[in-house]
Each structure stands twice: as structure tokens, then as C-alpha cells.
Automatic annotation (TrEMBL):
Subcellular location: Cytoplasm
Alphabetized InterPro entries for the sequence: AAA+_ATPase, Chromosome_initiator_DnaA, Chromosome_initiator_DnaA-like, Chromosome_initiator_DnaA_CS, DnaA_C, DnaA_dom, DnaA_N_dom, DnaA_N_sf
Source taxon at top rank: Bacteria
Positions that bind ATP: G155, G157, K158, T159
One cellular component term from this protein's GO annotations in UniProt: cytoplasm
GO terms for MF: ATP binding; DNA replication origin binding; lipid binding
Protein name in the entry: Chromosomal replication initiator protein DnaA
Organism: Allocoleopsis franciscana PCC 7113
SMART domains listed in its UniProt record: AAA (SM00382), Bac_DnaA_C (SM00760)
Chain intervals for the UniProt region annotation (Domain III, AAA+ region): 111-327
Lineage of producing organism: Bacteria, Bacillati, Cyanobacteriota, Cyanophyceae, Coleofasciculales
Similarity annotation: Belongs to the DnaA family.
Domain IV, binds dsDNA: annotated span: 328-451
Amino acid sequence: LWSQVLERLQLQLSRPTFETWIKTASAEQLTDNCLVLRTPNPFARNWLQKYYIKTISDVVQDILGQPVEIQLLVTAGDDHSPISDTGISWSVPIGSSVSEGISNSPPRLPELNHKYVFSRFVVGSNNRMAHAASLAVAESPGREFNPLFLCGGVGLGKTHLMQAIGHFRLDKCPDSKIFYVSTEQFTNDLIAAIRKDSMQSFREHYRTADVLLVDDIQFIEGKEYTQEEFFYTFNTLHEAGKQVVLASDRPPNQIPRLQERLCSRFSMGLIADIQAPDLETRMAILQKKAEYENIRLPRSVIEYIATHYTSNIRELEGALIRAVAYVSISGLPMTVENITPILNPPIPKVKASPDTILMTVADAFNVSIEDLKGNSRRREISWSRQIGMYLMRQHTDLSLPRIGEEFGGKDHTTVLYSCDKIGQLRESDATVDQTLRQLSDRINLTSQTKN
Ligand code: ADP
Ligand code: MG
């Protein structure tokens, strides 16, 4: 039951919230009318009690079909001190989160995140056109902009807009078939269909969509067979006047190894790009987020966070969540002084050579460069390898496949998985963040002295 509950909650809550507060709890006992949950410490218990108990019990009730009382216990004899100088530190130590991260294969992605709706999207000069186009497509799909191609950097709202289109359609027309898939998932479905000899149903499935939303289409690069199949899916839908929306971190003509015919299909509707938000927009986003989460924020705090997180809205939101968590745990008032120590504004990333990165990581974790390029699955080695991939993504412009090559010919999905995983851990675990900062510092230093 608890894993079902977790799955649902994961869809409903933001990732930092989920990782920090929900995932650390475990189910202890379930009787007819009472579910007992164990939390790692008193702060976590109070926090859950205060903010999430209603959400949890709603979900449980939904699953069980009857109301259930939720009781929260605290693990006894927990010797983790809940607060340290760096902030929240009871999260799993690096070692254990690695193994945990690997064994928990990622659940199938949620269809649509209920938070990704138009009303929660803040419009600024950076995204005005993408927003307007998305709204137009949502209002009359298959008409004006088909396909709609959204492009922009990581964490700037592509997925949000895309899913907002889906929500909007479902509100208007609850029966319409809205498919939201990542390119990864499309590929996996395709592979599964080939394996199970069920291509027919694969095709039928995708071709019945009224609106097909495909996220991170840049990952189609180099996948010949996926491109082939997607081309036919696309054409079928397009000819039938069905809407296709694509999101990518770059425009079609900059996706390497993309078939010419797909590139031209992708470009025949509207390409709308999203830029990094300006200060005013960032402040408005924080303001709105705080309103939805019922958090009172002084203007000085909003300003502070917004000035320090400039290029990625996901990080901006993550900073807000961390700040809120910190003051609530420490009992301090929400002021700029009190949250400065834990916010750690992003440090600039100097471009570095892959060798510098490999050397820095090998050195820091006391492993050899051969280890990083090899296939050992020993925990320390695969952990440092994943960190290395993440840092290479941050400090170079190399594509995922190229990064895979630097690590002795790993598949690009392995690289993607590592980068995602480390990125997520970084958001939820202050020690991981600290480690990455130190490594980035060293890489910056080495690269600067070299130049
Ligand atoms: P992308 O798909 O471009 O990487 P996402 O759509 O996942 O980015 O957005 C990252 C986070 O930032 C999400 O939580 C999203 O709700 C939020 N976000 C992005 N842009 C906006 C915006 N304009 N207004 C409100 N929230 C936003
Ligand atoms: Mg996205």
C-alpha cells in the first residue's frame, strides 16, 4: 500500500518536497482504520503533520476506498542530528543513497503533473510567445501551429507548458485522447513492441491520439529506428489534423543526427523558444509558488533568492523549498540572514576539458581514471563515475553520447540516467550538493590556471 501511496504522492508533490519529507517516512502498520508511519526525526514528523497529513490521508483514502487515520511516529534512538551547520543533514548519506537509487528503478512517469497548468505558469518576456502559442494550440488543436515545437534550456518550463496544453484539452473535452510521452518512453515502447511482436498495436495506440505531446525530442538523435517510426506516427497524426507538440532543449536544425525529413517536419509549424527569465519574472514565479504552497515570504527573501538563481526555474524553486524547510526545522524566522547559509547560490561553471574533469574526480574519490572508464560496479567506483558524468555535462558542451565515449564507451542513456540521478540527489541532499560544489570549484580552478 505504502509504495502505491508514494507513487501517487510523487505525482502530486514537487520533487524536493517528496524527497525531503515523504520518501524518508516508512509505513509501520496498517489496521482497519489507522495507518502508522515512521518518520526519521521529530522535525520531519511535525512538518508532515503540519503540511502534508491531509494530502497523505486523501491519497490513502482514495486507494483504500475508506477514510483512515494517519499516525506519525518518530524512529527512536536516531542518532543523526537533524540540524547541522549546512542545514538539513538527516538525508541518507552518500553511500546508501547510491545503492538505493540504483535498485529503485524509476517508476513509469506520471501522465500529467497536476501542477503543470496554465494558471500556475507565470508569463514574462522570456516565454510570452511560447505561452501564447501553447494557449492557442490548447484552444484549437490541429489548426494553426502544427507541430508546435517548444525549445529552451533545462528547467525553463517546456514540460510545464506542454502538459498545460494537455490539462486544458482534458478540461474542455474529458474524452479526448491526450498522450504525453518522453522520447525515451516512445523508444522503449517501440522496443517492447518489436520484442513482443506487437507493432500493430503500438502503431494503433500512438495513432489514436488527439494530441500527442512528446518531451525531450532531442534524445531522438541518432536513433534511426525510432526516427523512422516516429516519422510515420507524426505523418499519420498530422494528416488527420491531430495536434503534435514537441519539446527540445534546442531547435530542430541543431539536433545532431536527425533525419532531414524529420527536421523539416518539426520546423513546419511554429518553433517557439523560451529564454531564461528576468529578475521580475523570477520574483513573480517565487511569489506564485509561495501562494500555492501557503508560505508567507518577505519580499526581501524573494528578492534574495531570485537574484541568486537566474538560469533555471527548477533550481529557483528548489532553493525556495530548502529555505522553507530550513527555517521550519530550525525555528528561525524567515529572513535573508537566516537562509543565506543554506542557499548556496550556484557557482559559475567554467568550461573544462574532459581530462581535467576525469582527473579531478579520480583524485577526489581516490579511484583511477581506468576505473572511471571501466565497467566495475563497485559502489565507490560507480558513484564517482556518475558524479563524473554529471560534472562533464555541466562543465562541457559535449552531447550525452560523447560523454559516454569519454567514460569508456557507455551508452548515452546511462549518462542521462546518471546526470538525472545526481541532479535529483543534489536537490534533496545537502551533502551531495556540497561535494559537487567543491569538485566544481576545483575544476574551475584547474581550468582557469591552464588557460
Ligand atoms: P523544462 O521542461 O523546460 O526543463 P519544466 O517545465 O520541468 O522545465 O519546469 C521546471 C520547473 O519550473 C517546474 O516545476 C515548473 O512548474 C517551473 N516553471 C517553469 N517555468 C515556469 C513559469 N513560467 N511559471 C511558473 N513555474 C514555472
Ligand atoms: Mg522537461
